[in-house]
Amino acid sequence: xxxxxxxxxxxxxxxxxxxxxxxxxxxxxxxxxxxxxxxxxxxxxxxxxxxxxxxxxxxxxxxxxxxxxxxxxxxxxxxxxxxxxxxxxxxxxxxxx
Length: 97
Fold this sequence. Notes:
Blueprint: H1 14-32, H2 38-49, H3 53-63, H4 66-70
Helix pairs in contact: 2-3
């Protein structure tokens, strides 16, 4: 779990933001791996927020892809691997630098 405590006027570093994105994506993957149906999660969120179920579903479906959409792949430390293009561009082809 990543917790960001920001003091007023202080900047949050890029690595902290990147770690938070990874943590959110991982948390959603763990929730999806439980016995809880997505429909149940959507209904509970909708009941407390009145946000459209369609919008809640869209957000939940995309949380697992945050890392792929918003972060570059970490460079390999050992220098191996070659020129793999990776899995960029998940959201409708968006994904350049």
